[in-house]
Please model this.
Amino acid sequence: MSTNIRVTRQSNKDAHPGMPDIDEQVLSRPVPKPRRTKAQIAADNAAAAAKKLAKAEAVKSNEEKKTRLVNSIAVLENEMDDDEQQAEKEAARPPAKKMVMAPQPVSKGKETHLFKHMYY
Model:
């Protein structure tokens, strides 16, 4: 109990019976929250730990998912590289010597053979 003795003013005794006059300074103070019990503290700590564990599991599952996606992309890239290398090996190669047709003079009366080619 407080040591302050509060006295109701004579003019206010009928307005609020049993309520002492309170000055403005006391009214302006915030009302303190009641303290938590040990059971409430334990429950809050358990809830916070569960929330932290759930968040850690979510982060871990996201990292595992990201790793699986990166690995699957790497497998696809390797397959694409292998396909490109195989296509290069199986590609038709141009002849070693370049075939150039020499201009043929067109003469009257002589038939020119269409497949006359000169190789350089």
User: Anything to note?
Assistant: The radius of gyration is 48 Å.
